[in-house]
Amino acid sequence: MGDAKSIETIEAEIVDEFSLFDSWEDKYEYIIDMGKKLPPLSTEFKKDENKIKGCQSTVWMHSDIKNGKVYYEADSDAMIVKGLVSLLIRVFSGQPPEAVINAPVKFIDDIGMTSHLAQTRSSGLRAMIKQMKLDALAWKTKVSPQ
Amino acid sequence: MPLTTAIGYDVYALRKQFPILQRELKGNPLVYFDNAATSQKPKVVIDALVHYYSHYNANIHRGIHTLAEEATAAYEATRETVRKFIGASSVEEVIFTRGTTESINLVSNTWGRANIKAGDEIIISTLEHHSNIVPWQMLAEEKGAVLKVVPITDEGEFIFEAFEKLLSDKTKLVSVVHASNALGIINPVKEIITAAHKAGAVVMVDGAQSTVHLDIDVQDLDCDFFAFSSHKLYGPTGTGALYGKKALLEAMPPFHGGGEMIKEVSFEKTTYNDLPYKFEAGTPNIADTIAMKYAIDFINSIGKENIRMHEDELLSYATESLKAIDGLHVKGDVQHKVSVVSFVIDGIHPQDIGILLDNQGIAVRTGTHCTMPLMQCLNVTGTTRASFAMYNTKEEIDLLVKGIHKVKKMMA
After folding, report:
1. What residue numbers bound the domain in which B130 lies?
2. What was the ipTM of the complex prediction?
3. pLDDT at position B1 over 80
4. Catalytic-role residue among B370, B389, B397, B407
5. Structural contact between residues B123 and B201, judged by C-beta atoms closer than 8 angstroms
6. Nearest alpha-carbon partner for B74 in B59, B85, B95
7. Count of A–B CB contacts within 8 Å?
8. Domains held by chain B: number
9. In the CATH scheme, what is the code of domain A7-143?
10. Domain map of chain A by residue range?
11. Cβ of A117 under 8 Å from any chain B Cβ?
């Protein structure tokens, strides 16, 4: 997860990895595994202000800025969402705020996970992406006040 | 090979009448276990909709042309069918609404606003769907009334003694669910109604889940209001009914103002139409309401008793099969239930279960089932719910069990 890699490069790597799976089981087992491997969110950040509430599952997220790059940590009570969140962190963490704000986040479509962004899922994933971008915007404004 | 003890009940033949059940989902045959959310529609219902729009689409009650007469006759035929289906004494007591939610809101907005005062008490139960909580909360807030909630046992059963203790001369209304959508538990509504009436309260029954499974006789129950939705009984969405005792309906102010609900209008004063039209402002959902009759006729042609025997067998088979799975716990595992089984699995979030079952072609409902207070009371964030209909089979339940084993393996 080198800082030098751009969002596009990381997204392409993920799409590449997923192209190796030929069954839905393999794909989901990989996502579940990603979820399990996501470093735990420090308990101090697992509070209501950091909650991104979906209808069925909850995501907690915290962000910080270091040397002009935004870093995210997160957790979820549902494992598949947590796995997808882990992919989002892999893509966005360590990027300049500007890049996060402007990223189209196409890889979720490309790995066949579009349904998780659908309204019916209410998984909080859509809200998660929005919040990651809002945080990036907040850090950008804070770092370089107009 | 007929599978139930009900004589002549051939579930495989029955399935052929539901076009959607022939569908495949991600390479698997569709297993539809979300019937408590909405049931699938038989071909006769779908055909009735197409036939209406192809042959006699017209606005009802006003036109004098043939199409209007045909449409009006079909629409009113549904009212008579509903009357018989729920045992109302007259068609004037059957108000068409968009469904259970609108029926409850109609009562809270009309009877409620006219009769509830500051300090009055409204009793509901912990098992209620949000649709039978929020309208009363809104009314209580507006009027300064108090909402009281009947507690449940650890298994989810209505505690009758606690209910009796809540009843007093302050109680103006009791509104309870007949069968819980989240757990399937059947409430002792007849006893609830008798006790509430003794205290001088009016009783509303939310029949959204019960009407498709149980024999409904509003006169025998002696409830004051009863609500149900067409789409949960194999009929179209967007229609349903409110039953109300005639004397209550007559005394109630109208709900919506507009066409159909009026007798005469001048800018000074409007006089309202007679029952049931007083509560049916505007052009109603004609097509879906006409097709609801076909759904009810379909149920009647098979026989509720036969359907119930089949569904009860599915329910006990599913309950036993699911309970045999290590780490799986059935919530609301009591004797008197409609065919709903709600469960949790240790260490696995319901959403993950739902997603991984969907990938195997199995449609279940996961989450809080619009009963957040009940979920809090049961101390779970949500459950996975499989709910069965007349067309489900034991083989499908076997697929569910197999599917859950796969979920567990994938999550391990």
Report:
1. 47-300
2. 0.90
3. no
4. B370
5. yes
6. B59
7. 39
8. 2
9. 3.90.1010.10
10. 7-143
11. no
